[in-house]
Amino acid sequence: MDFISGEILLVNKPLHWTSFQAVNKLRHHLRKKTGVKGIKVGHAGTLDPLATGLLILCTGKKTKEIESFMGLEKVYTGTITLGATTPSYDLETGIDHTYDLSQITVEQIYETAAKMSGEQDQFPPIFSAKKVDGQRAYDLARKGTEFELKSKRITIHDFTITAVNLPEVHFNIRCSKGTYIRSIAFDFGRLLNNGGHLTRLQREAIGEFTLENAQTIDEWASFIDSH
Questions:
Q1: pTM for the whole structure
Q2: Quick one: 118 and 88 in the same domain?
């Protein structure tokens, strides 16, 4: 492989790693292998630390194609836990409200998922990397600063419930770029007149690139060192 001319690396990002940590780790190995301190390495779409799955890394001249990869459709699997909300819409923050689940039926859950498909305006979580007056929203949220985020037009192409084991609802979602699955989890609970937050998320595909063809960070590091 010619990492300087440019390669696409499909990485299976582990839980608790940031996308930046994955880039940094492989950049370190690429610098040692190629002897090029300024070798370019970038990712085509971040994954939250609490999410696992496909992360596309580009090296060398392939970094010029990052924008085109970021525009591709994404496929995710995961779990929404009903009956409770958190400020971050996931497990980064603790539960702030709880709700009674006794009136929710499986039929309502499937109907709600069907209603959420299509083009729509979505508000990002306040605990997100969106910038507000030059600052990251999650930094402001952690400080307790009040602010508003603008909605963004997104498309949920397909929202399939794969299993229901209350309070857990397991799903498969195919969506446009810029979609926050955490916001889908929150909105899903709200549409059920209840609460919901994301408790598991894995990115399965970005366009034609799939997780099954990805390698772990350690596998890529070993490959780079040996080639």
A1: 0.91
A2: yes
